[in-house]
Amino acid sequence: MLCYEPDETVPNRFPDRAKECDFAMKVIRANEMGMCFGVKDALTLAHDLEDPTETAIHGELVHNEEVLKDLERRGFQMAPESRRTDLPASPKMLVTAHGISDKERSRLKEAGKQLIDTTCPLVRRVHLAARNLQNKGFFVVVIGKPNHVEVQGIIEDLHNYTVVQNIDDVASYDAPQIGVICQSTTAPSDAARIRSAIEAKNPDKEIRFIDTICEPTRIRQEANRELLEKVEALVVVGGKNSNNTKQLVILAEKRGIPAIHVQTAADLEPAWFTPYSVVGLTAGTSTLDGTIEEVYRALLDLDPTATPSS
Ligand code: SF4
């Protein structure tokens, strides 16, 4: 059985173990992690719907397989994000927290769909910033992942824009005014690097940067940064398609801290932990509190010396 040292940041569930064993592994939780208010509000709204069978979810309500399976069990019609152009038969459509473009909103309404809108207000802020820049004559640079649904929703309403994911994508733009915004879940350090690259490649131009990274993402990234100072390895809990979860993994790897991305406690491989005595735990903004607790308990209970089953 795994032993661990009590730590002021970790409730000691098995106080006798530390006395019994020489080997010890600490599990330190990030000060801030897990589901953000935008995702929580969207889920609450979905749960409050009286008849889920008459509603189709327009893409993935959250990038979390567990939650998606639960919504499907409850009767919601589901379609993968790659098929958001399809029109389901259901009379109602639930717009996810990632938001959609005005163009798409009009398409759905013209098709007679009643929209249940759970767009996060912080995503709306990004749309607004992009449109304002464009209306003022700026060429809009969106820092984000080109295929992410949030970015798709933003750029569908623009006509003078580009999307950059990293500094290699940055170019000299043929425009006197450049407006820069960020996908809400961009890592602040990435945004800062890309902003510098835009400024370097576009000297003598007016560049307006609007920081549209959402506060929950920023706070979780900062908490992750603090956590990485204290641990030898990191466990990140979250959906495989969750951008902000991946950002937490990438931040660890950039700092030379091995990170493992799990969706549930069942994904934990005991042998992976063998070299480490201090392990951190964090989670993306679409991760349920219950899942985080399960992973935490499993970390306390797993035996890193166990032989993986063949
Ligand atoms: S990650 Fe940020 S923008 Fe996205 S739903 Fe959560 S709070 Fe809103």
Overall CATH class of the largest domain: Alpha Beta
Distance between the termini: 21 Å
Helix content: 25-40%
CATH topology of the largest domain: Cobalt-precorrin-4 Transmethylase, domain 1
Strand order of the largest sheet: 1-12-10-11
Please compute the radius of gyration using only Cα atoms: 22 Å
Q: Provide a count of the helices.
A: 10
Small ligands present: iron/sulfur cluster
- Number of structural units classed as domains: 3
Return the average pLDDT rounded to an integer.
88
Major sheet characteristics? 4 strands, parallel
Q: Note the beta-strand portion.
A: 15-25%
Q: Which series of helices and strands comes N to C?
A: HEHEHEEHEHEHEEHEHEHEEH
The gross shape turns out to be flat
What's the number of extended β-strand segments?
A: 12
Outline:
The protein is α/β, with parallel strands linked by helices and 310 residues long. The chain is built from ten helices and twelve strands. A four-stranded parallel β-sheet has the order 1-12-10-11, with helices on both faces. Strands 3-2-4-5 form a four-stranded parallel β-sheet, sandwiched between helices. Strands 7-6-8-9 form a four-stranded parallel β-sheet, with helices on both faces.
